[in-house]
Amino acid sequence: ASFLISKHLGEIFQKENLVPLASPKIAISSLSKNSPFVFTASFTQKPQVTIGDWEKIKVAKIKAKEISEEDINQSIKNIFEAWKARKSDIGGQTSEDDKSGEEAGKFIYDARGNKIFIKDESARPTSEESPSTSLRASKATSEVKDTPDDNFARAIGARDLAHLHVIVKKDLETIMADSAEAKFEQEIFEKILELGSVEVPEILVEDELSRMLLRLASELERQKRKLEDYLAEQKTTIDELKKKWQGQAEKNVRISLILEQIGKDEKVQVAREEVEQVLKGLAQTNLSEEQKKDLEKYIAFNIFQTKTLDLVKKTVTA
C-alpha cells in the first residue's frame, strides 16, 4: 500500500503541479483484494507567489555611523558602572586565574546593547589555590576605583584599559555595521512586499511563531535564564507572546516566500559542498537518518535564501 500511495501521489502532484507544504495525511478507504485501491490524501498546498519587476527597485545603502572617542568612552563607562553594580550585588572577588566570562556564560550589556563577557565574580579562592592567586584576587577587589582602570579592564578579560578601548571600538563598529545592514535589508523587504502578493497559510505562520519562540528560548539559555522566569518577569504567557508576534510572523513568512520565488526565477543554486561545509560544524551523532535528511534540507534552504538575498541586495543597491 505504501508503495502504491507514493507512486500515485507523485504522479498526481506532477500532473496537477501541486506542491504540499508537508507530508500528506493519508486515509485508506479500500484495500480489498477484488476492489479498487482507494485512498484520500489531505495536505496544504504551497501558495502561489506573484511578484512585479523587483529588479527596478532601488534602495540607498546608508554608511554605518563612525565611532567617536566619546562613543567608546561612554560605552566603557557604562560597562564599568554595570560591573561595579554586579560586584556590589554578588560581593565576590575577581582573580586573573578565573575562567573567562564566555566560558562561564556571564556577561553585561553596554548602552548600545553590546554583550561584554566578564569573568566569574562568584568564585572564591579555596585552600587549594596558591597564596599568590588569593593575593591577586584580594588586590583586585581592594583596588576598585571610581573610574575605569587597568584592574577593571583585566577583570573583564582585557589586558589593560588601552586593550579594552580597542575591543570596545571594534565591537561598536560591528554593531553599527550590523545595524546599517539590517536597516538596508528591512527597506528592501518593504519594497518587495509592495510588489509581491501571496496568501500565507496558517501552518506556515504557526511554524514561524514556533521558530521565534525557539530563538527567544535559545537566547535566554545563553544568558543562563529560563523561559518560565522570563514569562513571569514580563507577566505574560506563551499564547500571549504568539498573539503579539502574529503580525511579524506573517510578515516574515511572506518575505520568505517571495524571496524563495525570486531565487527560483533567478535559478539560484546550492552546491552539495556548501551544505557539507556547514554540516562539518554540527553534531549529528544522535540524529536518526530522517532527522539528518531534514537537517540537510533546512541548511540547503537557508543557504538558498541567503544567496538569493545577496543577489537581491546587489541588484537593488542604488
Number of helices: 11
The biggest beta sheet reads: 2 strands, antiparallel
Could you tell me how far the N terminus lies from the C terminus, measured between alpha carbons in angstroms?
57 Å
What's the alpha carbon Rg, rounded to whole Å?
Answer: 27 Å
| Side-by-side strand order of the widest sheet | 1-2
Q: On the 0-100 scale, what is the average pLDDT? A: 81
Structure write-up:
There is one protein chain. This protein has 318 residues and is mainly alpha-helical. It has four domains: 2-46, no CATH class; 69-170, no CATH class; 200-265, no CATH class; 267-318. It has eleven helices and six strands. The strands form three sheets. It has a two-stranded antiparallel ribbon with strand order 1-2. It has a two-stranded antiparallel ribbon with strand order 3-6. A hairpin with a 5-residue loop joins strand 4 and strand 5. Helix 2 packs across helix 6 (161-195) and helix 10 crosses helix 11 (289-316). The longest helix has 35 residues, at 161-195. The radius of gyration is 27 Å and the shape is elongated. The termini are far apart.
